[in-house]
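JOB MANIFEST
job_type = single_chain_structure
chain_count = 1
residues = 500
[input]
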Amino acid sequence: MSDEIKTGNANQDKTSALWTGDYYNQGTVSGDIFDTLKEECGVFGVFGHPEASSMSYYGLHALQHRGEESAGICVTDGENFNYHRGMGLVKEVFDKDRIQSLVGDRSIGHVRYSTSGDSRLTNAQPLVFKYRDGDLAIATNGNIVNEPLIRRQLEASGSIFQTTSDTEVLAHLIARSPKGFVEAARDALSQLVGGFAFLLLMKDKLLVASDPNGLRPLVMGRVGEAYVFASESCALETIGAEIVRDIEPGELLVLDERGLTEDRFAEPKRKALCAMEYIYFARPDSDLNGSNLHAARKRMGGRMAIESFVDADIVTGVPDSSISAAIGYAEQTGIPYELGLIKNKYTGRTFIQPSQELREQGVKMKLSAVRRVVEGQRVVMIDDSIVRGTTSRRIVNLLREAGATEVHVRITSPPFKNPCFYGIDTPDRRELIASYKTIDEMRREINADSLAFLTPEGLIQSIGGLNKDDYKGGLCLSCFDNDYPTQVDFGGDEKEGCSC
C-alpha cells in the first residue's frame, strides 16, 4: 500500500480533495487499512433438500468472514440448472426474490476474496461450464500450486481460458478426459497439487473433495435425509444441521440418486490442516478436528502467559479474533481482562483514504482505544499475528495516545516469515517483517515496550483435538517454519495466496 499523499489539483478545495470515489467510504485503493491476512474463501453445498438455495444463503452468510468480495449460488432440480453471482456481501447479492427464483433440491455456494485471481465478476464462483454431459458448476476454497504449469500445458494443446481463476483448470482437465464424469473428476483431482476443498455440481450429481493433505477445512452434516457441506461447522449450526464428520484428506464423495458413496481420488498424505484456521480465520463457534476454536484460542493465550509473562495492570485483545486468547492470558495470569479496544463494525470494507494522514484517521474510525480503561495502565495487548507490522504499530500508538503507560504485545502465533501457497492472501516474503527483522527490531518498529510470540510447540499443544502421532500435530506451519507439505515450485509467482 503506497503512503504517497495524493493531493489532486492544487486548486481543489480541501473538502473535495478528501476522496475521489463516488461515495466517501469508497476510497481510492482496494483492500483494507488493516494489514491483516485475508480469510481465503468459503464453500457451502446441499444435496437433497427442497429449500437448497435458502439453506445456501444462510450458510454463506455464516461464512461471510471468509470472503466479502463476491458471492454466488448455483442450484438444480435435476433438470434445470440456474445460478446467480454478484460482487459484494451475501445480503447485497441476494434478496428474497432472487433466492425464490433459484429452485432445486441441490446447490453449491461460494463467498470469495480475490488475491492472485482478478477482482471481477467473471471470477466470482461458482464457476459454471458447458460440459458434454450437461452444465457443470465448481466452487472451491484454496489454491492449486501447480496451476501455472497445468494451464501452460493446456493452452499449448488448444484450451482457451475464460477466467484467471485456477479453478478453471479443473474444469478443463475434466472436459478433456474421455472417461465418465466421476472417473474424469477423480483423474483430474489427482493431478492437482495444493490445498483445496472442491464442490462440483451437475444436474444429477454432487462431488465433494479435499486435498490429500487436508490443508483446507471441509465438514459434512445432515438435515433430515439431506446432506450439507461447509468450510466451517458454524455454517451447519446456522441451518440446524447435525454435524457428521470432517471430510478426510484425499477423499472424494459422490452424491447421486443412489445416495452417498464414499470414495477417494488419492491416498492421504502428511496431514497438514492450516494452523491459521485455529489462530485467526475460523469463527470461534466453529469446531475443527473436534477442537472448538474459542477454547483452542483461550489455551493459546494461557500458554502465551506461561511462555512470556509480563507484569501489567490489564489485558486486552485486538477484536475480534484475539478476544478469546486475551481471556485465556488473563485467566492464566490473574491480570484483569478489559475491553481496551473497541471495533466499529460499520465503517465499510474498504475505508481507504488518499493520504497517510487520513489513513491514520481511518484506523481510529474502525478501532478505538477506551481511554478510561487504558489511561495510566500497563497494558498487555494480545493479537494473533504480525504481517508487515504497520497495523500493530498503529494499534500500539492508539493505546499510547489513550494514556497507556506501557504496551506489551503478545502474539499467539510464531513469527509469520513465509508466504502461503495454499489459499491465504499473504504478501511477498520480502514484505513480511518477521522475515528480515529480529524480535527486538520488530518491537522497536511497532513501538512496544516488549514483544513475544507463541512457540510452535506451544501452538501445537494448545490446539488440542489433534492426533499426537501426526507430524507437527497434523498442522501446516509452513508460514512460520518454511516446511511446506507439498512441492511449491511449479513456475508460478511466489505470492500465490488464494486464486479461487
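[summary]
The longest strand covers residues 134-144.
The CA atoms of residues 222 and 242 lie 5 Å apart.
exit_status = 0
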